[in-house]
Fold each of these.
Amino acid sequence: MKFLITALILICGSVSAQSYQTGDLTVTNAVSYPTTGRSGAGYFILSNTGAEDALVGVEADYPKVMLHKSMMKDGVMTMEHQMRVEVPTQGQLNFAPGGYHVMFMGLKEAWGVGDTIKATLIFEKSGRLDLTFTVTERP
């Protein structure tokens, strides 16, 4: 019975997941997590079924929104602003904790489970893609 309930939850969660597309690029699983401070992050999976492209910007209604990459330097986790993220031909990029992510800075209110964050990804060749991040519990 436990297995059946878990399977149903996973199926329902994947059915309700929103996907966004522009040209050969598809974004799925756009999520954020609850915040307590003045910044938050957005994560997603970016799939490309066509030629190479590049994510060159992001816009949202916050004082500062940037593409970042987390990385370990000298034993310390740091974040580095990314002016451009290459999207490989016939490839996939995971924007996830500990790697690439969208950084939203200057939040006036904390984000809670169920909140939504609207943003626009800007691609070099494929143009603009509007999407909505849904705030969910951290896994």
Note: Confidence is low (pLDDT under 50) at residues 1-16.
Amino acid sequence: MSQISIVYHSGYGHTEKAAKAVLEGVKSVANTTAHLISVANIDSNWDVLKNSSAIIFGSPTYMGSASAPFKDFMDKSSKIWMTQDWKDKIAGGFTVSGSQSGDKLSTLEQFMVFAAQHGMIWVSLGILPGNNSSKSSVNDLNRLGSSIGPMAQANVDQGADAMIESDLKTLNLYGKRITEIALKFNKA
């Protein structure tokens, strides 16, 4: 049995919708307990994270970085860092921005460094880029071409319900991938 936690911040609902897509992927794997934790509620969930096999980080990309509320969560984790409670846990992350690029890579890199500081084991997206040939389309999985973790794009003048389905499917696949790896890692 693996316990998987998704810790996220969402400013306008898009990243929450992305987190729920990851959650669906996690729940699709048997022998798994899933937790969706907003950083607004982090203080009552530190033990849940300590007991998780994997932690997946999610934040919008604002100004080329994780959002301030998510960064606050990262800073609050320094007590966990001191005791190495997350060492050897599986880690991953996802992000959403208004632009197709939106400097989202820097947010995922920020998550990777954060996970490494905690001694965690990072999981890549694990699928090839889509939407990169004359025969492809925005309906392809991984249409934004990330390797580190899923990136989603949400039009700034539309709500979360208008998010692109292929991005949500990519997020779902990532939740499943991390969960399957956590289960394999826990068997070792």
Note: The chain has six helices and seven strands.
